[in-house]
Each structure stands twice: as structure tokens, then as C-alpha cells.
Amino acid sequence: LGEKVACKMRKNLFESLLRQDVAFHDQRKTGELIDRLTSDVQDFKSSFKLCISQGIRSTTQTIGCICSLYSTSAKLTLALAATIPIIVLIGSFVGVALRQLSKSAQAHAAEATGKANEVVANFRTVRAFANEPLEGQSYEVLIQKSCKINQPLCQSRLLMVNLIIAYVLYQLKSNSLFLNSGQLMSFLVSAQMIQRSLASLSVLSGSAVRGITAGSRVFEYIHLQPSILPPLFSIPITGGRKIPYHCLLGHLRFEDVHFTYPQRPDHEVLKGVTLDIKPCQTVALCGLSGAGKSTIASLAERFYDPTSGNITLDGVDITQLDPSWLRGRTIGYINQEPVLFSGSVEDNIRYGRPDATKDEVVSAAKLANADSFITNFPSGYATVVGERGLALSGGQKQRIAIARALLKNPSILILDEATSALDAESERLVQEALDRVMVDRTVLIIAHRLSTIKNADVIAVMKHGKVVEVGNHKELKKKGGIYSELIKLQ
Ligand SMILES: Nc1ncnc2c1ncn2[C@@H]1O[C@H](COP(=O)(O)OP(=O)(O)OP(=O)(O)O)[C@@H](O)[C@H]1O
Prior knowledge:
It is a multi-pass membrane protein. This is Mitochondrial potassium channel ATP-binding subunit. There is one protein chain. By secondary structure, the chain is of the alpha/beta class. Helices cover 59% and strands 13% of the residues. The chain folds into 2 domains: 223 residues, ABC transporter transmembrane region fold, CATH 1.20.1560; 245 residues, P-loop containing nucleotide triphosphate hydrolases (Rossmann fold). The protein has a 6-stranded mixed sheet with strand order 6-9-10-3-11-12, with helices on both faces. It has a 4-stranded antiparallel sheet with strand order 2-1-4-5, covered by helices on one side. It has a two-stranded antiparallel sheet with strand order 7-8. It is elongated, with a radius of gyration of 32 Å. 32% of the residues are buried. The structure holds adenosine-5'-triphosphate (ATP). The site of adenosine-5'-triphosphate (ATP) has 13 residues, from helix 9.
């Protein structure tokens, strides 16, 4: 039962995490979420199993021995029983305090796991800055905090056990005069049995406290509905209209869009952006760092909803559209640091459309300039990509990501600085692939390097959350505004 419960909890929690909004994941550390999925479920399971198995044994033993005590000496047993409510009362007060302590210890342990996760995941950066001692120290500070809280927790559990032993011994000692030696022996054995059972129950209560707190941390997220956030930020994963493929033009329009990230409510990132991206047009966004370019891409993908204003696709507000259709079928998103999953190259490309055939995977790879290097690997498409794609070069990863995005044949392509992290040769190969796939699609390019967007149909220049200049390369250059200044700078 314990295993089944844990399995179900893990499944439900994982599904709930996948259901949450992007804003929810922005606000929490990966390690903390993984901690709930692993050690909290494990704690809950262990204590659940222990409470059931040992709990049943100790309870039946206690009940049996109480009957035995009663048959030996009813008087003495009643005297013993009279003091029990006091113990229960004290126990429940102590229990509340223990639960609070345990909760705070677990929160600190989760924080430490979050830290460890961050450091291990970004090990190269830590090594590159020679910050191993620093990270070691800050991890130690966090685990010390949890250790300091856990110590009194264990001590108080021990104290409870000792109190119970003392109580039983005291009762026996003060009442022994009423019994003959045989009865006393029998009473002692039964009482000792009760004492042991009660002691194990009190140890069990510590474990139950841990289990309940761990369980409450898990259930907190299982029952968390995206709708508990302000309605503005809760975005369902599925459900809504779909535009039939043959009617879809790919006309994306932003109308007076204002946006503030939920976790930074005092900082308005977009301040009335209006942008028209006509079907099959290539529109480039450029501007200073932090102007809000990537935020526009996130809004088009509907990772967040605008605070005010509308985003429409072929005239339909995207809040009316099925988000999974929008992300899964209509928009292909390629960013600067594509994430690949562990598995084969083929699995990674097929991630774009799990029902694609091998031929479709290969043609997407060909279109993305990836087929030649993949077939050069000894295992070809079955080559296993290391965790986070570390076994591949930046340019190779990028081309696999392009193939993955192309597999769904998206009508709209968003390229968020797709070539900016590459060297000249890789950039040429990736750019060649992109030029090929941009044909007959609506494309939104976000670029730092202006040389990559010279040929765009429309260039929109952003500054402090607003579109301040719109035109093509020639027009903007002639205008002598921010764009021409940026060109001079580069
Ligand atoms: N997830 C987030 N939560 C809170 N604030 C964010 C988040 N992402 C971006 N921001 C803030 O929003 C603003 C715009 O960021 P954005 O990434 O859209 O700019 P950008 O123009 O794409 O910059 P860059 O060219 O450097 O990538 C910045 O001030 C940034 O700090």
C-alpha cells in the first residue's frame, strides 16, 4: 500500500508541476521542486509504512497488555489510567511544537538541496570561476541550519520516551504494595510490554510528524491549481479554439500590449507595444539589452498573458486559442541555448512531434543542415546525446533544435538570438538552415547582431519596453535614429 501511495503521489505531483504556469516555475528553485518529488515523497512513504506496520503491532500489544493488567489488578490499572489524560495533553502540546520544528527543518533541507542542484547543474561555471570553496561553504551553512533544528527535534523525541518510561516505573513502584509476588511479576511483564509499545509509538509519533509534514508539502503542490494565481496569470494547458491548418495564415498582431512579470509587479516590462507581423513576413526585433524583446516572444508563445492589450493570431485573440495547439503545432521557437534531453539524436528531433516517422525526422534534419553531421557519427541517428546535450557542439545542438522545431511544420517561427552563441563557421551553417526554413512562414527574429537582420521585411527597434522605430534596413539607416546609432556602434 505504501509503495502504491508513493507512486501515485509522485505521478500526481509531477503532473501538477507540469500543469503549473511558467510564472510558477520562474518563482521556484528547481531543486526545491525535485526535493518534494523525491525526498518528501520518500519520507512520507517510510513513515506511512512504519506507522502502519509498527503502529498496528504496538497498538494491539498495548491493548492486549492493558487487558492483562486489568485482569491482574483492576485497581492499579485504573490508577495508571487516571494519569494518562495528563500525558496525552502534554503530548499534544509537544506534538504541535514538534510539527513546526520539523516543517522548518524540512524547508531548510529543501533550500540546501536547491543550492546543491544549482551548483551541480552549473558545475562548469563554478569550476570556471574557481568557486568550489565558496559554494562548499554556502552549502554547509544551509545544511547546518537544518541540522541545528533537527537536533532539538531528536532530543525532544528522546525526552518523550524517557518521560513515558519514568511514568510507568513510578506507577509500578508506588503501587507495588497491593500485589503479591506472582501478580507483581505478571503486572511488571505486561507493564513493561506496554512501556515498550508506548515507547515505540512515541518514536513512531516523531516519524509520523515527519511523514505528515512531508505529505503536506507534497499535497500542497498536488492540489495547487494554476487558477489560484490572479486569473491574469493562470493559463490552461489545453482547451480552446483551433484554427484549421488550411485556413491558418500566420498573421500575428500585438495591440497596445502592456506586461509586468508576476514576480516583479513594480516593474512594467512592456509599455504599450503595437506590432503587426503579416503572414509570411519576416519581422526583426532589435534594441538595447533588457528592452523587452524576449518577453514579446514569451507572450506570443503564451507563457504569460499581457497585463492589458491584445495579441491576435489571424484576428483571433490568442487567449481564445488552445494553448497546446498554439505551442505544439503553430509556433516553432528556437532560442540561443537550445535544451536537448538525454536520449538519442532521433528522440530529440522527434520531441517536436512524437508521432513523426523516421523519414520525416530525416527530412527535418536535412532541412536544418544537420543530417550530414548526424550520419557521420558512428551510430548515426541513434547517437546518444549526453545530459543537456553536452556531447554536441553549440552549432550541432542548434541545428538539432531547428530540426526539432521544423518537424511540426510551424506556420510561425520565433528565433530568439538563435545564432548569437555560435562561432563564425557554425553560424554560417545554422544561418543557411534558417534562411531555408524561413521561406513561406511568418518569422519573428530577435537579434543583437544587426548584420543578421539586414534582410528582414520589417525591423522594429525597441527601447524601454516600447517600439520606437519601425521600417526596413534602408529606411531606418537613413532616418538617423536609434537603429543607425546601433549600426555605428556595431
Ligand atoms: N522571468 C522573468 N521574471 C522577471 N523579470 C524578467 C523575467 N524575464 C525578463 N525579465 C525582465 O524583463 C525585462 C526585459 O527582459 P527581456 O529578456 O525581454 O529583454 P531583452 O530585450 O530580450 O534583453 P536581451 O537582449 O538582453 O535578451 C528585463 O528588465 C528583465 O530583467
